[in-house]
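Lab manual, section 2.4: Encoding a predicted structure.

Procedure: take the sequence of the chain (580 residues), apply the prediction step described in section 2.3, and record the output as structure tokens. A sample record is shown.
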Amino acid sequence: MDAQGRGRADNIDPADQWVLNPNTGEYELRLSPSAPQSAVPGPRRPPTGGGRAPGRRPATPGRQQTREAAPAETLPAPRRRRAAPPEEPLPGRRGRRPEKKSKSKKVLMWTGGTMALVLVGVGTAGYLVLKHLEGNVTTTDVGSAAKNGFSKNEAFNILVIGTDKRTGAGNEGYGDKGSVGHADTNVLLHVSKDRTNATALSIPRDLIVDVPDCPTKQPDGSTKVIPGTAGVRFNTSLGQDGRDAGCTMRTVKELTGIAPDHFMMADFNAVKTLTTAVGGVEVCVGKPINDEKSHLKLPEGKSVVKGEQALAFVRTRHAFGFGGDLDRIKVQQQFLSSLMRKMASGDTLTDPSKLYNLANAATKALTVDTGIGKVGALKDVALELKKVPPKNITFLTLPVIDNPAEKVHATVVVNKNTAPQVFDAINNDVSFTEVKKKKKADKSAEAARLKGPQSEASEVRVRVFNGGAAGGSAQETVNWLQTSVGVLKSENAANAPEIPKTTLEYAPDQAPQARKLAALMGLSGAALKPGESFTNSQGMPTMTLTLGKDFKGAGVPLTPPTKAPDVEGKSTADKVQCAS
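Recorded output:
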């Protein structure tokens, strides 16, 4: 009788017959206290003695275990079922109908005595044989730029970076010749705390940014601070002057106010190996493609691409749109959506060969920070990602405009009118798709200050102080109030002592003005401070607005948004789109 048959005959769950031997670090099959112990095939520790490799060996009743096998008392006894059901036919036996797997068991499978746990998600990996796959993963210590570990109970942000380094066979024709590995493709992935939604924000490589000073770990263990540079392309935040992925993470935080918790980085080989491992990815184009630069040839409509052809698909720029990086980003978002659907499909999850190939390819393709450098941490990341429905995974591109400093537009800059609202929504865990949320009524005294009649914007009088916001914020706010929302009776009152939170002080008879200004600026009830008014040079009572350290910029609400802004070109992972 085989292992599973013996387990069923004894009313023992087959999964419980495999236990971890603490002496060898291997999973072993335990049929009974005196039965032979069968080691799980896969990577093993060096033998602990005798020069003999651990493995399967006969056990004679009463014979003392050798050092390569765990003592019988260290192995937990098999768990028995509460009630013995009628004997079931074994899965896969000819002529017998296999048991129907539950949804959860699609990701936890026993194949040939090896525990296989599949991870699916953007840029993530899986594991079949823990020790083997953990050896595949490359890690980079980016210091304080990343968190020390992964929390399953919080919202999290992962920066996914694709470099343009020409490593690997067949990649000589892609990227920049001699590139040190710049941040060519960049996706900031935010996963909500309740796992109902996620947002994948693409950051253009040609976006002009200020790269901050960056501490980097050197091979000898020392730390070197690489000076920052202002007004450069975003892609130079990696590789240039020895910058590591931590520099890219710091640049993202400087740019968006959103702090990445971890990073995952891959090169050209990742696209080729992952698409091959899953048997190809379906893509769609709105016209026949014959691009001489990327050598991409596709007929109109749907095609399945993998390996070299998949890499050509995500690298081509001239085949779609206006031939620029922003058009390529749209194509890459469509490709990632399709890859995610393929990785999560039953065709992949129920095929042991594809599972192993996917896990092996993904872990080899990744470089991650040390905080998630263990396969156990990557498993946790991916299982949390898997909870998010594809229909609620939104792909969007950071809002930008052409660089006004250039006559021939080769770079872009942040659109200050629309980008801050996008950053604010992500920072406050707001979904870009419709998800059900439980709302609680706020009955506090602070909330009551916002209720009641409001003045017209033209009637609002306010002077603006800078009490800890970025330099120039007071004048920037006055300009915004006057030109964007019609508060013409506003003035810059220069600097004030630093305060942590923005406040608006007003006299009792100015409450309607205060409520109006709060509504225009997105101030909370806590920001409104009943007090005294100031009499200006015209003898008119004026409210006092002091911008604190929490001020995010003119026009950016200080209260957490309840709805994300509408962003042009956004898409969701469940939708099939054709690139054109």
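Check your result against the sample. Residues 468 and 549 are 5 Å apart (CA to CA).
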